[in-house]
Amino acid sequence: MLTLYDVAVIGGGFAGVVAARDLSAEGYAVVLCEARDRIGGRTYTGKAFGRSVEFGGTYAHWTQPYVWRELQRYGIGLSTPPETGTVHWLADGLVHSGTPAEYAGIGGPLVARYMADARARIPQPFDLTTADTSAIEKETLGDRLDALHLCAHDRDVLDGMLAPLVHSYSEQGLAQFLLWAATTFGDWGAFLETAGTWPVEGGTKRLLDAITGESKAELRLSTPVTAIEDDGTGVTVTTRENEHIAARHAVVALPLNTLSDVTITPPVAPPVRTLIDQKHPMRTSKIWARVRGEIAPFAAGAPIGKHPVNAARTEYRHDGDTLVVCFCSDASAIDGGDREAVQRALRTFVPGIEVVDTACHDWVSDEFAQGTWAHHRPGNLTRAVPLMREPHGRIRFAGGDIAAIAVGGIDGAIETGAEAARAIARALAAED
Question: Whole-angstrom Cα distance, residue 239 to residue 33?
Answer without folding.
Answer: 9
